[in-house]
Amino acid sequence: MAKTDHQVFISFRGADVRKNFLSFLTDGLKRACVNYYVDTKETKGEVLDILLQRIQESRLVLIILSKNYMQSNWCIKELRTTTKDITESRRKVIPIFYNVQVADVKDKWKVGEQAEGVEGEETVEEREKNVKEALMILTRHMGMRSDEYGTDCEFIEHIVKEVKKVLTSIEQEEKVKASVNTTVRSEGEKQEVSSLTGTNLPGEGEELETKENVKLFGITQRLQKLQEKLGMHGVVSKETRIIGVLGMAGIGKTTIAHKLFEEGKNKFHRRMFLDDIDKTSKEEGLTELRVRLLRKLLKKTDKTITEETTHESVETELLDSNVFLVLDNVSNKKQLEYLLGNRRWISQGSKVVIVTSDKSLVEDVVSDTYVVPGLNEKEGLECFCYHAFGDHKVHEGSLMKQSREFVDYARGNPLALKVLGPELRGRDKAHWESKLLQLAQSPSNVLNVSYDGLSQQQKEAFLDVTCFFRSENHKFVTALVDSEPDKGSSEIRDLADKFLIDITGGRVEMHNLLYTLGKKLASKQQKRLRNHHEIIRALKRKTGKSTINGIRGMFLDMSEVGTDTALSKEAFNGMDNLRYLKIYDSHFPQENEAGYKLHFSNGVKLPLQKIRYLHWLRFPGEELPQDFNPKNLIDLKLPYSKIKRLWDGVKDTSKLTWVDLSHSVNLSDLSGLLGSQNLRRLNLEGCKELKTLDARMENLTSLVFLNLRGCSSLVSLTEMNMESLKTLILSDCSNLEEFQIISEQLEALYLDGTSINTLPLSMIKLQKLVLLNLKDCTKLATVPGCLGNMKALQEVILSGCKKMETFPDLQENMRRLRIFLLDGTSIKEVPKRLQNPGLSRWPHHGDGGVKGFPLLRHLSLRGNDKIQSLQPDIGDLYHLKYIDLKFCKNLASVPTLPPNLQCLNAHGCESLTTLGNPLAHLVLTDQIHATLIFSNCNKLDEDAKTGIISYIQKKSQLMSDALDRYNLGSVVESFVGACFPGCEVHASLSHQAYGSVVVLPELSRHWSNNGTTGVVLCAVVSFTDYQDQNNHVLVKCTCEFKTSDGSLRQFSCMVGGNRLRTINSDHVFVGYTSWLQIKKQKEADDDDKKDYSCSDDDQASLRFEVIDSTRELVKNCQVIKCGFSLVNESDEAESFSWEVNRIHGEASEMEVINQQGETSTVSNNSTQGVLASRIIDNEEALRSQQRETRSIGNNNNDTNDVLMLLQAYSDDSELTDGDESQRMEEINQQGRKISIGDVSMVSQDSEESDESQNNKQDETNSCVSSEDQGNSYVQDCGRVTENTSAQMIKPVGLLCLMISISAGAAFILGKRKR
């Protein structure tokens, strides 16, 4: 790992969390696009201290504090490195308390027995003391505790959200946007900055950054990027370029422009650097500036330049030669009009640079822009040391901590560092610390330059964002803050253009320096109040009338109000300019009395004419007061209030956009909202008195989201058509008996927990519906047949619909269906279309298109007592990954399963006797994990059990070959496992023993280097005395190797596991682990991290034990037999057939969709042309999918992982809206796969096959063994590529391969054209 690009370093105890919690966490981070680092990502052979370096390089450190964390020397090193450095850097740390108590970590934790010893020159006592101090530092940081969440999945989801939030905050802090210009623009400003820093500033006209004796930091890379944009890097291009150099004041724009001009001026006959145009235009006037410019450019001509001369009048002379022109510090468009004219005079090959802090000025002028970045941490520290100590070497002395804090304060602003450094030179530590405090409280003298240049409305918007709306949604803030949005102007856009705020990830963010400036300015004005003492004083009328009248916003946190406060009815009188009012409780709902500390006598008046934003938790009145005028109201939130209606009669709510009245249990009248033409979101969750929706709500033409969850009095919906509504939530409306279509634009419909007994035939109108949730509709017996014609449906949830006995035939129109949950229903047979998916074969050839349900990922029939068998062709559903058959008590047989299956859960299928032969199609796919759960399937016959073992062994062999063939061993962690009733280790496992230990004294010393690629492990576990039958159990195998020097090496891997209900019989657990994974586990679990080789081992033993999900040993579960068998490389003399299958992925979906009535007859030439183009065009797609294949392998490490994923989709617990949305997003992302052209290739001998496959590892996605599939399915499309395939076989490398493909494709395409 030569260079890291990770954001998050994860410190953990491998023995505790690697195989369960950590794998889920890294999977969640990966889905959230967070670059994380764990030790397995490091390149083998690196010195172990590289791990500590990775901590230094990270933005955020997650320390997972688990039970045995302190037993590891290396964990303690990571802990101490993190906490030692955390106070001296901008890096953040989040402690994760996983199944441990915070109090125990703080008070009881110490160095474990396995980690005891002396480190370096430390004594034992010193080490104990230092470790204790590190723990205390760590626990002072806000952390996250697993005991606050119901499941690990929920805990991990919240961890990922917090990580994203922290990283976003860090990114904003790193975007250096200090607001002082690189050169101090006026004498007044010089004095201002001088008074702040106590340093002598350069005189007027002196170029701060371009003197030869001034060290410039980070200039080279920035200059190069600007030169590239101008076409001046190396040979000057002949293109005309006008480039805007942008950034906040002080970031270094002028410095770079000066450097650019000095290096490039000799390449142009006419050149000019026009310095500080803003200042000069005010002193001399724009006409004089234009005269100076034209005289400079035309000085070698006999042209007379006067005040009347324009660019147009001397255009001919100017076009004689190209120019290099830099316009520094442009502040308005009029300056550009005077200095550039109509720009037709700029000759070919000219370069013009416009330096400005306002992006809007150059949008219609420049061809490109360059935003100058701030100094990074290293550059900033060198810059500060140069000015503070006289050299650029980083000083690690007593002032290092303070030096870093000054650099952190400046956020990469070179001018701020330059001004601060000299004033601190030679001063003592006390002065430095005093200066830091001064800057933290009073940065405005440096930053006022940018603020003072704003208009009054822009200043108000800047302070509004600072005080109230930092990190809020961009569109939300824009709607609230902009003064006149109807006129097309936007202060938020203006502030972003001037680099005073930043729009990142759809949110409004602000540099910390500007945030501090804004808070100080706001505190002087006393117009924006957040301090509860100040707010209470204002409400009690204890401040001046003018102060009250000027209040613009108040955010009152009731958790900070210590006692009950009595207020007058007229408390808000006189607040004529109040725009933002929020009364909330940051501790709610933990403290249920939120909002009742304010007591108004005889109600409250709200004569707030300008109010835009009103949030009031537990509003005390039954309606808003009569004097309340909502004409400017945009956002209204009154959750948990006592209101029965908003107001009497009709009021102007034309600007109202967001309304939240959730859990207002007395609300029964929505008439106050009927005129809200711009209302987009309406949340009425938990409004239990709401009995109906007014038909006039269809006039809410902008409403896209309506939440009626838990409105238990709602019996039916009024007939209407809400033309914009996309999401309708009726979950837990327990008395809703009839559903009426109220919008044909619905994309998500939640009817779970309602009392509906049927769906209307008008459901066919919902052709945009993606998600239909009917979970726990216990009265629903049937659904209309038209459901099968809803083309957009991707997710259908019928879980818990007990009365449903039949489901209509699924039509081919439902080809986008990804999730189909029928668990808890009473259907007697699987829908017919699933019974006959019509796939000719998933390695598809010849029939012109994919039929059936090529995108189906998840099928659940759990708890069904009616179904006796599954459809025989279920194995053809290529992308089906999860099949849940738990407690299907009458299910007697399971057919051959699909190749991409990740988990089959058949726990408690009491009648299950036979399984398909083969159990599943053996194909190398992008899914290398497979878990088969047959616990409590006590009637399973011996042939079925033998088939399970055979599948495990063959799948293991296939994966081992793939890991070696495609060199994936260092990337993926494979797992194949199964469990089923039984009391014997299968005879095919060559090494067996009674009890929990198998000793192998005669095992070859070189078994890991003698063709062995992995190991199949088996354990028979007795649950006779096991009582706690509601927990995950895992079977762990610990491998112990006794070396020739007498030392003992050991490491562990998982065999399999299950979430138990009631198991009384013995069960067999079988699992496969690759040898590469074993070695990686060994290196990770060893505290000394030494390289490991089995060649030193004289004898080996395997010990099996049963543990729970916390890795604790489970008592009363006994391993009575065990065994294993080595998995070896394929016989080199054997010939294999490897096929690149067409994966029926998302690209195939387009074919599927096109075939819904849109397919036409395709000629042979056309077919060949399409195939040829696919072969060429999909080169990068193949490589991309190979990378995806490798990454997917990291999703789960053992059976526990698969079970938790399965639970996330189909557990008994109810899913939240967020869960369902996230699930749909995951499915959508998983579906984005590329269809791969059909290419078959047959190896003639093992040597040639190996070499050709190595050359093909970046192209090949799916491989099929000839043993399982043969060559009979290679039809017409395969023959088109026979010649090409022959070329592939030859070991001529990728280059020759692509030449051959391209030539063949060109020939076919040319033939088609002719």
TrEMBL record:
<dbReference type="InterPro" id="IPR011713">
    <property type="entry name" value="Leu-rich_rpt_3"/>
</dbReference>
<dbReference type="InterPro" id="IPR042197">
    <property type="entry name" value="Apaf_helical"/>
</dbReference>
<feature type="transmembrane region" description="Helical">
    <location>
        <begin position="1292"/>
        <end position="1310"/>
    </location>
</feature>
<dbReference type="GO" id="GO:0007165">
    <property type="term" value="P:signal transduction"/>
</dbReference>
<dbReference type="Pfam" id="PF23282">
    <property type="entry name" value="WHD_ROQ1"/>
</dbReference>
<dbReference type="Pfam" id="PF00931">
    <property type="entry name" value="NB-ARC"/>
</dbReference>
<dbReference type="InterPro" id="IPR058192">
    <property type="entry name" value="WHD_ROQ1-like"/>
</dbReference>
<dbReference type="InterPro" id="IPR027417">
    <property type="entry name" value="P-loop_NTPase"/>
</dbReference>
<dbReference type="InterPro" id="IPR032675">
    <property type="entry name" value="LRR_dom_sf"/>
</dbReference>
<feature type="region of interest" description="Disordered">
    <location>
        <begin position="1229"/>
        <end position="1271"/>
    </location>
</feature>
<keyword id="KW-1133">Transmembrane helix</keyword>
<dbReference type="Pfam" id="PF07725">
    <property type="entry name" value="LRR_3"/>
</dbReference>
<dbReference type="InterPro" id="IPR002182">
    <property type="entry name" value="NB-ARC"/>
</dbReference>
<keyword id="KW-0677">Repeat</keyword>
<keyword id="KW-0472">Membrane</keyword>
<feature type="region of interest" description="Disordered">
    <location>
        <begin position="181"/>
        <end position="205"/>
    </location>
</feature>
<dbReference type="InterPro" id="IPR044974">
    <property type="entry name" value="Disease_R_plants"/>
</dbReference>
<dbReference type="GO" id="GO:0043531">
    <property type="term" value="F:ADP binding"/>
</dbReference>
<dbReference type="GO" id="GO:0006952">
    <property type="term" value="P:defense response"/>
</dbReference>
<feature type="domain" description="TIR">
    <location>
        <begin position="4"/>
        <end position="167"/>
    </location>
</feature>
<keyword id="KW-0812">Transmembrane</keyword>
<feature type="compositionally biased region" description="Polar residues">
    <location>
        <begin position="1260"/>
        <end position="1271"/>
    </location>
</feature>
<protein>
    <recommendedName>
        <fullName>TIR domain-containing protein</fullName>
    </recommendedName>
</protein>
<dbReference type="Pfam" id="PF01582">
    <property type="entry name" value="TIR"/>
</dbReference>
<keyword id="KW-0433">Leucine-rich repeat</keyword>
<dbReference type="InterPro" id="IPR035897">
    <property type="entry name" value="Toll_tir_struct_dom_sf"/>
</dbReference>
<dbReference type="InterPro" id="IPR000157">
    <property type="entry name" value="TIR_dom"/>
</dbReference>
